[in-house]
Amino acid sequence: MLSRKLLLSTLIYPSLIAVFPATAQAENPAEFATCVEQLKSTALQQGISNTVVERDLAAVNYVERVIELDRRQPEFSESFATYFERRVTEDRIVRGRELLAEHRSLLNRVSKEFGVPPQYLVAFWGLETNFGGFFGKMPVLDSLATLACDQRRSEYFTGELINALKIIDEGSITASRMQGSWAGAMGHTQFMPSVFLRYAIDYDGDDKRDLWGSLPDALASAANFLRGIGWRKEERWGREVKLPNGFAFENAGLGQTLSLSQWSKLGVRQANGSALPRVDMKASLLVPSGHQGPAFLVYENFHVIMRWNRAEAYALAVGHLADRINGAGKLSREPVQSPRLNRDQVMQLQQALNEQGFAAGNADGVLGPGTRAAISRYQKSNGQIADGFPGKELLEQFGVVTE
Ligand code: CA
Questions:
Q1: In this structure, are residues 218 and 228 in contact, taking their beta carbons and an 8 Å threshold?
Q2: C-alpha 220 to ligand 1 mean position (Å)
Q3: What phi and psi, each to the nearest 5 degrees, are found at residue 226?
Q4: Does 102 qualify as catalytic in the annotation?
Q5: 211 CA to middle of ligand 1, Å?
Q6: What is the Cα 253 distance to its own chain's centre?
C-alpha cells in the first residue's frame, strides 16, 4: 500500500514537488557522507535554516532496512476478500464506534467546517494507523535521506526530505519526535511531508501543526486534505447494490461511468432491493470478487479516496468501514475468496492473455485492474460471465494450476 501512496503523491501533487537533480547514490558510508553533503547544500539553497541543516540534516544515518523494505515485492497477490476482511474487522468497527462517540463534539465541529462526515475521518484514522495505535517508529529524516541517496527514486525523496526539514524549521515538530513509516509517512493519518506542508493545519490553537500529538490537528488536517482533493460534502462514497440475473458484467470497472438512471435501466437496485436514488449522479460498478461476491456502485467521492491511496480495495475498505462505524450492517454478500496466486502464476496468466490478444498490459506479476479487464474481455469472447474474476476454472483454462 505504501508504494502506491508514494506513487500517488508524485502523480497528483507534481506542483508540490520541486525538481531536484538526482543525488549521488550511496553504496557505502563514505558515499552516503558525500551524498549528505550534497543534500545540505540543496537544503540551504531551498531556504532551510543553517541551524536545522547543521543540527538535524548533518546528523542523519543511513538505514539499510529502508532500502530492503523499498525493494520488497510480495510473493503472493492478496485477494480482495483477504485484503478487505483483514482491514474491516469487527474489532475495528467497535473501536471506531467508541471513538466516534468519544470525540463527537470535535468531529462534528471539523465536519461542519470542512464538509467531511465524522465517520469517514474515523475510518481513515482506523485504516492508516489503527486509530493512532501505530505511527511507525522510523526517524523520518533518516528514512528520507537514505532514499534520497538511493538511485531508484532519488529526486522524489530529495524533495520530501527538503519538505520534512521545512516542517522542522517552522517549529511544528523536532527531528527526534518526527517518526514515521520507512518511507516517511507521518502521524495519525500518515501524511507524506509534501501533503503535510500543503494540508496540515493547527486546530487546537497552539500555533503548531502536530499530527503526532494533537488529535484535533490530525483530524482537521485529514478533513482539510479531503476537501482539498475534491470531497463532495453532500454525497456518499458509493453503496452496495444488487444486480439482476443475466447482468452484463462487461459494464463493470472504474473505466465505465453511467448515470444512476442508466444503472437503474440496467436493473441495478440497492442491496435491500429498493430502487436507486433518483438523483443526477454518475457512478461506476465494481465487482471486486466476481459475480458471486458483493457489487458496488461508486461515486465521485470514491475517486477522492483513491487520491489518498490509489487502490480500489483501500477505497472500498474506507467506504464500508465508514458506513459500519456510522451504524450500518454487514454487506449483504460476503467477498468471495479467489485462489492464491504467486507472481509467476500471475505473469503466466498475463502472458497467456496477451498472446491471445486480450491486452493485459505489461506482465508484471501484479493482479491489477488492467489484468481484470483483460480477463473480462476473454470471458466475454468465450461466452462466460465477464466479471474479470480469476476463479479456479478460469485459471485452469490458462494452465495455471492452483492448490
Ligand atoms: Ca496544534
A1: no
A2: 10
A3: -60, -45
A4: no
A5: 8
A6: 18
pTM score, whole prediction: 0.91
- In sequence order, what are the residues at sequence separation of 6 or more whose Cβ sits closer than 8 angstroms to the Cβ of residue 318? 120, 123, 124, 127, 237, 305, 308
CA 173 / ligand 1 centre spacing (Å): 10
Q: How many domains does the chain have?
A: 3
CATH number at residue 185: 1.10.8.350
pLDDT for 241-299, tens place per residue?
999 999 999 999 999 999 999 999 999 999 999 999 999 999 999 999 999 999 999 99
Q: Which residue has 500518515 as its cell numbers?
A: 190
The pocket of ion ligand 1, defined by CB under 5 A, consists of 202, 204, 206, 208, 210, 214, 217
Q: Which domain holds residue 259?
A: 238-325
Same domain, 33 and 182: yes
Grid cell 461506476 — which residue?
Answer: 284
With vertex at residue 183, the alpha carbon angle to CA 169 and CA 29, rounded to the nearest 5 degrees, is 80
Which of 179, 201, 223 is the C-terminal boundary of a domain?
A: 201
Q: Which of 75, 98, 128, 393 is catalytic?
A: 128
